[in-house]
Amino acid sequence: MEEGRLDAATWSDALKLYEWLCTFVAVAPREHDEWWFDVGSIMRLETRDPRGWESIDPYEGEDERREDPLFPWLETPSTPADAERYGERVEELPRSSVRSLVVLLGAGTSSVDLSRSLGWEDRRPEMERRADVILSRFPDGTRFFTNLGWKGDRPDFYKQSSRGHDSFSHYGWDAGLIAVNDDEVAVFWNFLSV
After folding, report:
1. 144-175, pLDDT tens digit by residue?
2. Distance between CA 42 and CA 187 in Å, rounded?
3. What is the CATH number of domain 8-192?
4. Confidence at residue 165, expressed as pLDDT on a 0 to 100 scale
5. Minimum mean pLDDT among 67-71, 72-76, 113-117, 160-164: which range?
6. 87 — phi, psi (to 5°)?
7. CA 142 to chain centre
8. Is the N or C terminus of the chain more exposed, i.e. has fewer CB atoms within 10 Å?
9. How confident is residue 127, by pLDDT bands cut at 50, 70 and 90?
10. Interacting residues of 6 by C-beta distance below 8 A, sequence separation 6+
11. What pLDDT sits at residue 1?
């Protein structure tokens, strides 16, 4: 990727961070002042990436989705009351901590201290490179939210081995990131059976 240049091919390559995982990734245009409505549209698959770039839906064509069109989500926000309730289920994350969360979602684990996992130092540079490409889509001023709990002001998700979470899905553990700016809303969500 040329310095500062993000295109469909580099975005698609960066999403390989989530290869072989049960991870949902989608970006949509920001169409509402209440961005939770945009998040709900993404979860319900009612919108597409405004740039026409790749998304990841691990349940496309799967039996679970045919039986329940919302699967894997338990429900999705669509009313002002939903937006208020969902807002209580996430915390805003400082941008300085977002890269470690993007990488954690690519590691596909709920409780491992990544910094101590086998082969971490070998895998880390490539995972961080892909995370940086993903984050380059979201300019300064983008706000980030997660359903994961953390300690301290600037969490390092590589080292925090015990994380509480507020589940959004049918799974025993799910971890997500929502990115919101004036133009786009993105949902990155990893699902694990524990």
Report:
1. 999 998 888 888 888 875 567 889 999 988 99
2. 7
3. 3.40.1000
4. 82
5. 160-164
6. -60, -30
7. 14
8. C
9. very high
10. 133, 136, 137
11. 44
* pLDDT above 90: residue 133: yes
The encoded tokens of residue 146 equal: 């997660």
Quote the pLDDT of residue 192.
Answer: 83
* Tokens, residue 164: 């509480």
Q: How far is CA 32 from CA 8, 17, 36, 79, 138, in A?
A: 25, 30, 8, 12, 18
Of 157, 29, 39, the residue nearest 105 (C-alpha) = 157
pLDDT at 111: 60
Residues in the chain: 194
